[in-house]
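Case study B.
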Amino acid sequence: MKTLLWLQGLTCNGNTQSILNAENPSFYELFSKIELLYHPSLSVDNNLMEIVEKIESNKINLTFLVVEGSITNDKKFHNVGGFSIGEIVGRVVHKADYIIAVGNCASFGNIPALYKENPDIKGLQFTFKEKNGFLPPDFLSKKEYPVINITGCPIHPAWFTHTLMALYYEKPVLLDSFNRPKEVYMYLTHDGCIRNEYFEWKEEIEEFGHKEGCLFYNLGCKGPITHAPCNKILWNRVSSKTRAGMPCLGCTEFDFPLNENFFETKKNMGIPEKVPIGVSKRAYITITGIAKTLKNERTSKKLEETD
Ligand code: SF4
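Model:
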């Protein structure tokens, strides 16, 4: 039977909470196929170091090493049985067929890596956009994959379970330049947002609480610059931030916590500092300029007033 060891470094546990909500396969279906060797929050036995020793001595084959949370060697921040998360990862990392980082902390270091007094806090293979994480940049697991990053703060459970199942059935998983599965992260949050029509017609809202209007120009929405299928694979099968009227915060990207004000669009002379991916500033100005001179009867009315 294939095995999975889940480790936690510096984390809020949010990705674990997310995985518990997995559907098709559910958490229980998943772990009837795969033996869960240990999970810090879910295992009854407090036997992590015993399992680590068995993996080290090849008494247990490790198929999937899953890491949640940033990595450090500093025991002041993380200490299990006298070992830091860095030491524990270091003992098993060469034994795993596949290594998966779940969430932005394990992928990029994220909020814990902003702690300036300890430059030793990192992601597994990246620290923010640099490939200088805990493991060397050219590190490959036994099946010759780098650390597969499932980014997000937290991740949607399906992003993890679909990737895990593809690897389980030994299907190839193509990765982008941040080692994220392309099947999941080739989409933008903007793709599928129900406010797209307002974006196209430059109908921008200036305050929260409206069903109508796009949140890009005034309220900091990062949907057009964020790789995530939040509007394709809906949360709890129901909704997404932008559908509910909340701007996308860009939490799947390396610079997520570095953004200073999540609810404001930074502009220079009225032009957003960051325009949609793939569009030049010149093209953005031209297209929005044309859209503003035209009127769409439908998008200029309250939704309840349209037929
Ligand atoms: S609210 Fe955000 S994701 Fe939705 S259409 Fe506007 S920019 Fe795109």
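The chain has a mean pLDDT of 95. The remaining cases will be described in the next quarterly update.
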